[in-house]
Amino acid sequence: MAKNAVITHPESLKRPAGPSEYAKDPVNASLSKADKIALYTKMARVRHFEQRCIRTYQQGKIGGFLHLYVGQEAVAAGTISLLGKFDHIITGYRDHAHGLLVGMSMKECMAELTGKVTGCSKGKGGSMHYFAPDKNYWGGHGIVGGQAPLGTGLAYAVKYRGQKGSCLTYMGDGAINQGAVHEAYNLAALWDLPIIFVIENNGYSMGTSQERSTAHPGCLAKRAEGYNMAWDVVNGHDVYEVRAKTAIALKRAHEESKPTILEIFTYRYFGHSMSDPDKTYRDKEEVKGYRETKDPVFLFEKELLNEGVLTKELVESINAAAMEEADAAAVFADESPEPTLADITKHIYWEEDNRGPKTTSSGTIIFE
Amino acid sequence: MAVISYREALRAAMREELKRDENVVIMGEEVAQFNGAYKVTEGLLKEFGPKRIVDTPISEAGFIGLGIGASMLGIRPVMELMFWSFSYVAFDQVVNNAGNIRYMSGGLINCPIVIRGPANGGTNVGATHSHTPEAILASHPGIKVVCPATPYDAKGLMKAAIRDNDPVYVMENTILYNDKAEVPDEDYIVPIGVADIKREGTDLTIVAHGRAVITSLKAAEILEKEHGVSVEVVDLRSIRPLDEETILASVRKTHRALLVEENKPFCGVDAQIAYLIQSRAFDELDAPIGRVSSIDAPQIYSKKLEDLQLPYPARVVAAALKVLA
Ligand SMILES: Cc1ncc(C[n+]2csc(CCOP(=O)(O)OP(=O)(O)O)c2C)c(N)n1
Ligand SMILES: [Mg+2]
Fold first, then answer.
1. I need a labelling partner for B97 at 20 to 30 A (CA). Which of A26, A340, B38, B282 fits?
2. CATH fold label, B2-183
3. Interface contact flag, A366 B62, Cβ < 8 Å
4. What is the ipTM of this complex?
5. Count of Cβ atoms closer than 10 Å to residue B11 Cβ
6. Who contacts A25 (Cβ-Cβ below 8 Å, separation ≥6)?
């Protein structure tokens, strides 16, 4: 393959529409009917939440940036569905789905977007900076690639503490060209850290198609070879496949304490963020093609209908409930109070927020 | 004279310099095909082609460093950072390499690079995207920093920066991009290191840079109308070099000084200016120097509070009245 050739789904990942060949993979075959319905429900919730976000944004209630995940749901849903007590995650700014999937509520997520004190970060972080450390979710990072060393550090801490865990470190296809990512790769491989670098390859970094940004040896994950690291490519439209291949990497992390790079092919339907008119760098037909033939939520729905796990009625009620939940979150965000002026200078230093016998430093720390 | 926006003024400066000097190259994320994340470079790819207008991967340390290296060999790269916040990824290049190479080579090597992009809060994008690093960067000898507040200055300073033989960091402001004003059609530059009196007055000197100038002009208006105070507004335009004489001359005239900036207070630009005034015009002062900066915390996301975190006219008016009391 030429150095900068377009990476589309590798041949091995192209398969005729129809049942997923990964349905019978042990991690999927072992799912109960209820598990499968729950997984589908989670994906539907992510989609409806984000579609509700568009409305809230258009109403002028969300400022700054809003990066939507619509089209990519199977990536976060599939990978996160496998995680256990000592497995952690960290991602970039396209972070809503990951938050909802680890169990954050739509309410706290929506309220964060509108800058309310009831938001997950108390209105301090915004769309790009969700955090839920109690759910092993370490953000939500606005600087492209900045999370890669952090994820490596989380994996280091897991290993240090002797836990059978890992850190899934998500990033985009553009992020892999940051120096920090390469340094993280090397450290992860050199020190045998239990990490999975998940490249969510949606084909574009802002308006730059992947072949205009990246020199690679056939695919992005293959850079792993330069670090003597395992890698794989994954069809990210099929949540079963995402689970099957993530399970292998997770086992490698848990049992051998070894890193993996997983490149998961996916697609975003909307512009890079809400402020991207999305008119210049890809054509409408391309987006339409993905929506119509590779939609991860719809494909899984079809899969489960065929399996007899879902019924039309169930699909409708799940989606109606998700929409209702998203609407309720928007109302909650509307009705929530703003943070106050005094909140600006809170949460800067642990010591300032915890003055007492245990605090030792003195002197002015916040300046006029 | 044409009325153009701050954004168009920057673009006009780059276009004219691209035409004037074939060594000028524009480089950055999304600057070419996408026409710039903030459309500052719109149309330049079409006009000058892909050799002169170059899209980069998201590799700030790499491409900024590359620009610095190319400048050593006589290229005049004008590098766009989508936000100055992202310079932190490239800090070693921006500070250690660009700032030291001339000194360490005993003057053998020049580094005529321009790095430009927005450096401001106030757009509700959170702490990671709202840095104002002019003071941090200007604290390194070897580096020049300018902060235009108006379309006229944006164009003139950008052209001066491109012609300069040292690294010049141009800090723009996304909130100012749509501001419009008259800008000459003919070639001109605003020399780096020359402040500008944006409003003349006799009772109080306000020293500001960047958008704080605009805020201060609004405050001056209110002070005049509602309090009968005549305020002089000194726009620094350039942080390093710093036009000390213009600041001092104004303070010697009004005998009172208020310093306004959007930086956080600790070691902000105003700390340097306060030192200057007290050391060289101490006897001229009728009151302690006043100061307004951003509230000392990482930039908050909440729009309502971020507007309060930054200096705004009412806060400047209140601080001015204190200095005048
Ligand atoms: C260091 C840094 N440089 C640039 C940006 C601006 N930026 C934000 S997202 C983005 C594109 C990233 O694309 P990719 O990694 O493919 O992720 P995707 O948006 O497709 O999920 C850019 C250039 C940034 N946030 N941080
Ligand atoms: Mg991408």
1. B38
2. Rossmann fold (3.40.50)
3. no
4. 0.95
5. 22
6. A240, A243, A244, A247
